[in-house]
């Protein structure tokens, strides 16, 4: 598949959110790799200060500078950035209020801590602002990055996080703060942005995804796709219904095992039947969750469960799966 032949042509900011435990950071990293393939250049941004990106790519902790962290298929590059709100505030004050090094003097009198405490939304303004600056940045008339992927906050607060600049623009009705907030929202609300929700096939994460999509739509924020992570294979096939109902006969299992040269006792047969029933019931539940996701009417992608854990090789496998399905 051509690197530009995707479901998200024209999208330059991919915001990845998801309930805790769904593998949101892993999916964001895989998406950045997928988008960089074919000689492109992507930036993977972390805003929660957990250094999850550095761990996934087996890199030293990321700082407040953009650093190459991986090479994608066919020579593309992935850069990483951990946005620190304090550093972003220094940059903001220097850029808009011409304070220069004097901005750092504010730290000595506690002004930085005071500002982020008295106005907690300020932190989100700084994080989204720095990300959107990277999206807009050009060099020699061309965008520096072909795409920016944000490992964003969880679904429970993603709408508030992305919409914070709307509130700021309303409070500060003129001046550099107002103009900066409007510039950020012009990126976030544009067709160049897509907010992707990561979930697993379990009731609570799927319901949180459904709720998040409804909130994003209500706030007129650009909803992207749903990425279903850690999908298990279904080895039972058309035997699923029988297994879930406990209707597979013991004799069938015993005969099948003996046919391949395995001698087992009744305890083993019982354990196998119990495991098959539990697995079948889970698969049936997952099918119900898939139906709930399908009702959202969004492009949906599935990533396999990596039974050996997520290492760098696993990230490349997930990136390839996203490309194969048209997500990148």
Automatic annotation (TrEMBL):
One of its GO terms (molecular function) is ATP hydrolysis activity. The keyword Endoplasmic reticulum does not apply. Its EC number is 3.6.3.16. Residues 13-182 form the ArsA/GET3 Anion-transporting ATPase-like domain. The keyword Acetylation does not apply. InterPro entries: ArsA/GET3_ATPase-like, ATPase_ArsA/GET3, P-loop_NTPase. It comes from the Bacteria. SUPFAM superfamilies: P-loop containing nucleoside triphosphate hydrolases (SSF52540). Keywords: Hydrolase. This is Arsenical pump-driving ATPase.
């Amino acid at each position: 598949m051509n690197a530009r032949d995707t479901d998200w042509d024209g999208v330059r900011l991919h915001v990845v959110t998801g309930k805790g435990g769904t593998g949101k950071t892993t999916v964001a990293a895989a998406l950045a790799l997928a988008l960089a393939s074919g000689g492109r250049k992507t930036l993977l941004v972390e805003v929660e200060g957990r250094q999850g990106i550095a761990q996934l790519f087996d890199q030293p902790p990321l700082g407040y500078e953009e650093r190459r962290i991986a090479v994608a298929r066919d020579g593309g590059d992935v850069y990483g950035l951990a946005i620190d709100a304090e550093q972003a505030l220094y940059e903001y004050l220097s850029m808009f209020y011409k304070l220069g090094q004097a901005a750092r003097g504010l730290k000595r009198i506690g002004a930085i801590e005071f500002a982020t405490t008295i106005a907690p939304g300020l932190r989100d303004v700084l994080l989204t602002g720095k990300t959107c600056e990277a999206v807009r940045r050009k060099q020699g008339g061309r965008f520096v990055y072909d795409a920016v992927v944000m490992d964003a906050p969880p679904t429970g607060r993603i709408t508030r996080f992305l919409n914070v600049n709307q509130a700021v623009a309303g409070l500060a009705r003129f001046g550099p703060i107002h103009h900066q907030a409007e510039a950020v929202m012009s990126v976030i609300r544009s067709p160049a942005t897509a907010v992707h929700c990561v979930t697993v096939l379990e009731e609570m994460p799927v319901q949180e995804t459904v709720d998040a999509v409804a909130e994003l739509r209500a706030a007129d924020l650009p909803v992207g796709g749903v990425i279903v992570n850690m999908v298990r294979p279904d080895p039972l096939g058309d035997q699923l219904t029988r297994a879930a109902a406990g209707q597979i006969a013991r004799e069938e299992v015993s005969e099948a095992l003996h046919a391949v040269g395995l001698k087992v006792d009744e305890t083993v047969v019982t354990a196998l039947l119990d495991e098959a029933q539990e697995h079948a019931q889970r698969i049936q539940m997952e099918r119900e969750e898939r139906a709930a996701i399908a009702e959202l009417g969004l492009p949906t992608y599935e990533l396999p469960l990596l039974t050996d854990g997520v290492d760098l090789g696993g990230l490349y496998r997930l990136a390839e799966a996203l490309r194969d399905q048209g997500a990148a």
